[in-house]
Amino acid sequence: MAVPVINLRPALEATRQLWSGYLEEMFARHQFILGEQVARFEAEFAAAVGAQYAIGVASGTDAIQLSLRAAGITSPRQQVITTAITAPFSGIAIRAAGAQIRFADVNPRTLQIDVDDLGNRITKQTAAVVPVHLYGQPCEIARIRALARKQGIVVIQDACQAHGATVAGQPLTSFGSYVAYSFYPTKNLGCLGDGGAIATNSARLNRTLRQLRDGGRRGGQISYLPGINSRLDEMHACYLRAFLTRLQEWNEDRRRTARLYDEGLKDCPGVQLIERSADSVSHLYVIRAARRDRLRAELAKQGIGTGIHYPVPMHLHPAFSDCGLRKGDLPHAEKACKEIVSLPLWPYLPESGALEVIDAIRHFYRG
Ligand SMILES: Cc1ncc(COP(=O)(O)O)c(C=O)c1O
After folding, report:
1. Ligand 1 center to residue 354 CA distance, Å?
2. How far is the CA of 195 from the centre of ligand 1 (A)?
3. Which domain CATH number covers 252?
4. SS3 (DSSP) at 21
5. Which of 244, 272, 299 is the last residue of a domain?
6. Pocket around ligand 1: residues whose beta carbon is below 6 Å from it?
7. Which of 66, 92, 94, 182 to mutate to test the pocket of ligand 1 (most atoms within 8 A of CB)?
8. Among 284, 191, 205, CA closest to 238
């Protein structure tokens, strides 16, 4: 049986009736930007992630960028630190806001941002930190919040891979005023294109972010703030409202598959598991693998898809060459990027599919 790295078809089928109904409502109202579907989704999503407010925007990248803008972090004299292992878009957002980018190394056991290293890299110019809840696993956000308070810097959480995640039962918004989500199709909650949202408990930020996403306007044709055009489309809100009703169930399904992989690979020679807590919503299942590229090629021959999240640490991307770091400067991230591989993981992945992946990996290392 072929096991793709991702398959969205079953989730789309399971919710067809619901999203079809919302699409019909949208066509009947004939409003395609900032209408009833987006307003309803924003309220439903805020409730689902335990926030007072959610502001729908055009992408996760924009959710981070707009948060930085709302915090007044738009100058190249201001530095923003993020982790060396993340999607390039975490960094692109910092650039888009106008700030200078900096990176911290990762904890080799979890691959989340290393809080001690982060602390050592904070300077007088540091204005914010963008910690990422990578692979669906919350990073050490309580420690980061304490560090940021002491240093007087802003925390903008990149929760683009962590829809529905909490920390010991507490919503992510209790650790900072800005929580950025992406609705890229493959996320735990995705739409059928690009989309994103910011969750916050601040009424003031809710107002400011709504203005910033809509050209700085307040509903009319006058631009009051240096905003951008970054609105969540009504059409995407129709799908998101339908998928949101299944988010908890789908996250549980992902966790089940992750536990199968844990069990099946924990003593497999050549494989090192990455530490994960019960708070994880298992967006990706990533292992460190000896002879990684040969393993991937062998799995591909058997119809098993894999991915790499991410092949190059951020400080070695040509686009971030001005970050002040060179090869060798973030050793944990650099080593991990050569070894990591993401295994198939999606809601409705049959148990037999996960067992087949485990068998194929064990067979590769036995050989
Ligand atoms: C960790 C992380 N940050 C930011 C982003 C950017 O989100 P988007 O693709 O919706 O702009 C993504 C998704 O690609 C991501 O995984």
Report:
1. 26
2. 10
3. 3.90.1150.10
4. helix
5. 244
6. 59-61, 86-87, 89-90, 132, 158, 160-161, 182, 184, 194, 196
7. 182
8. 191
Is the CB of residue 234 less than 8 Å from the CB of residue 38? yes
3-state secondary structure of 100: strand
Can you tell me which atom of ligand 1 is nearest the CA of 133? 1
* CA distance linking residue 199 with residue 178, whole number of Å: 6
Burial class (CB in 10 A: 0-12, 13-18, 19+), 36: middle
pLDDT tens across the length of the chain (367 residues): 899 999 999 999 999 999 999 999 999 999 999 999 999 999 999 999 999 999 999 999 999 999 999 999 999 999 999 999 999 999 999 999 999 999 999 999 999 999 999 999 999 999 999 999 999 999 999 999 999 999 999 999 999 999 999 999 999 999 999 999 999 999 999 999 999 999 999 999 999 999 999 999 998 999 999 999 999 999 999 999 999 999 999 999 999 999 999 999 999 999 999 999 999 999 999 999 999 999 999 999 999 999 999 999 999 999 999 999 999 999 999 999 999 999 999 999 999 999 999 999 999 999 7
Residues 254 and 331 in one domain: yes
CB 190 within 8 A of CB 183: yes
Q: Write down the pTM of the prediction.
A: 0.98
Q: Which of 95, 98, 148 is nearest to 118 (CA)?
A: 148
Total domains in the chain come to 2
Which mutation among 67, 184, 308 tests ligand 1's pocket best, with the greatest number of atoms within 8 A of CB?
Answer: 184
